[in-house]
Every structure is written in C-alpha cells, then in structure tokens.
C-alpha cells in the first residue's frame, strides 16, 4: 500500500522562511542594546552613564539616542570620532576634559543642548571646536578656567540662545566674538577677569535679552559697546571697577528694565553728567549708584544729584571713546563758584530724592549774561566778574567796566607815549 505524502505548498514554505529570517535577523536588530555600566530608557531614548568612572565616551551608544548623560566621569579628551551616534541633549559636565579637537561634535547635527561645565582642566579651546552645531540652542562652559576664546569659536552657531561662560578666567573679549549669535537671548559672563568692553564686543547680538557681566574687573566701557543691544531688558554691571559709564552707551539700550550698577567706585564729577541725565528720563528698576568721589559727594547717590551740581561742567567731547570731557573752566570761575556755594543753606534735595526744583537760595544767585558766560567758556586766561563782597583780595574787575571807562584807556596810553618821546628828545638835544 503506497503512502501518500502531502507536499507543503510552496507559498507556505516561503512564509515560514521569511518568518525565520525576521526572528533571526530583523527582530534582534530592532532591539536597542544598552552600553555596559549604563541605564537606558525608551520614549525618548535616553542613555544614562553618569558617575561610572568612564575615561572615554562609550562606543556602543545607540545611534538613535535622544538624550545622552555622561556627566561626573573621568573623560579627558573629545575627538572627531568620539561620537558615533546622534542625540539632541549631551551632558559632559564634571569630567576631566583637557582637550577638544576641532570638529569633535561635527557628527552631532541635531544636537540642541551641550553641557561642558565644571571641567576645570579644559582651559583652552581650539577654533572650530563647535563646528557643525548649527542647531545648538544652549551651550554651557561655566567653571572651566578658560582664559581666552578663539575668535571663530561661535562661528555659524545661528540657533544658539543661551550661552554660559561665567566663573572662568577670561581677561578679554575679542571684537566680533559673538557676531554670528543673532538669536542669542541670554549671555552669562559674570565672575571673570574682564577689564574693558570695546566698541564691537557685542556686535551682532540684536536679540539679546539678558547680559550678566557683574563680578569682573571692568574699568572702561566704550560709548558704543551696547549699540546692537536694543532689545536688552536686564543688565548687571555691579561689583566691577567702573568710575564712569557713558550716557551714550545707556541710551542705546532703550528697552532696559532692570539695571544693577552698585559696587563700583563711581566718580560723580563732570564725567558723570551724561549718566545722570540718562537716569532723569529712564523708567527702570535700578540699584543705587553711590559716589566715591569727589569727597564732597562721597556717599551720595548719583541718580539724585541736583542740576546745580553740574552747573559748571563743560560739554562732553564727542570724540572720546568713553564720553569724557576735555575742556575746563577758568580758575577764577571755579574759585567764585566754590566760594559762593559754601554760603548756601542745605535744602531737602541734599538728602531726599525728588524732582529738581530751584530753591530760594539758588534763585537769589547773581545771573551771568549768556554772552559773557560763553565768551569765557573753556578759557583759562579769561576773567569773569565776581560779585561783591565775594571778590578775593586783589581781584581785577576792570575787564567789566563800562564802555565809557574803557574808552579812556587808549587816551591814557597815548599821553604816556608822548611823554616818553618828549623826555627822550630833551636828553638828546640837551
């Protein structure tokens, strides 16, 4: 008796073969492997390898990772081949990174947040270290002991919004260092050693909202330093070495709302007048601006000085980089003003901030003719009339005699000259 062997349909055998291939090849490939010593979480794909004493970036991080945490390890170098994966968030703070190769992050085309903070051995960065990170929005480099920044470090980082450079050892900020950061809104530079803010230091930061540059050693701000910061709302300059701040610099930040200038050795003489004038019209929340000099104004708040305190100040020199003055008044003008001011009784304006109004004592001051005032402006040799009985001993008021008196002076000189000629002729001819 013959046995009938039922053949398996060819279509079914093909399906079985594809099932085996899927189980053996495709399915394992779809399972995301997690690097050793790391913990992985799905949705979004997160790889956490923090505090594992790693000395290099793991090579088996899943390519489609979205967040990779490598903080608090012992990683020392970042090379161009260190990252064989893509991620949107990369944390590398708290390592021992000493060197970052140019183009080290160039494979991370979708990276949005990079944290390199608290790497105190970094100290130096090569130009092009962040090349290719055109989608980067947040960059942390705080407490890395950075002493200088390459001029092209932030080249083409058009998407960057938050830049943290605080508590480093930066001495200088090069011109146009931030010129490509057109979308930057927060810049943190406090706790460095910066001394000067040059004309083009913040050029290009047209969308900057907050600038924190306190706790530095700034002693000079160029009058055009803030010219691109029209959208700035918060400016911290406290705890620096500023004796003056150009009024023009502050007029460029029209949207400022919060300003801190305390902790600076402010000089409240004529150089402070442009800043004082700016405060009179500004509608902002401001810290105190305590005068250190001159001695008679020490301890007073610059914002609440009176218009009379700047009565003898010359016009600022428009060509000065910081808006200082170059002309002076005659010494006689200074003597009369200081002598007369000593007789003024104190008014409520000496202690209380208020809108300036002329006091009775000020209204009683003798008035100078405008033409006479400006004729002697800036002339050290010019005379100015004093007002009795305040004239110093020997003070000459003859320059202000009436026109009838001045007409007699040439006649007297003429007669004297004739007398000299007559005596000479007498001696010659006996």
From TrEMBL:
InterPro entries: Cys-rich_flank_reg_C, Leu-rich_rpt, Leu-rich_rpt_typical-subtyp, LRR_dom_sf, LRR_TM_domain-containing
Keywords linked to the UniProt accession: Glycoprotein, Leucine-rich repeat, Repeat, Signal
Pfam families noted in UniProt: LRR_8
Xref: Gene3D superfamilies: Ribonuclease Inhibitor
Glycosyltransferase recorded as keyword: no
Signal peptide annotation: 1-33
Transmembrane regions: none
Keyword Repeat: yes
Domain of life from the UniProt record: Eukaryota
Domain LRRCT: 264-314
GO cellular component labels: cell projection; membrane raft; perikaryon; plasma membrane; side of membrane
Annotated coiled-coil segments of the chain: none
Designated name of the protein: Reticulon 4 receptor-like 2b
Gene source species: Neogobius melanostomus (round goby)
Taxonomy of the source species: Eukaryota, Metazoa, Chordata, Craniata, Vertebrata
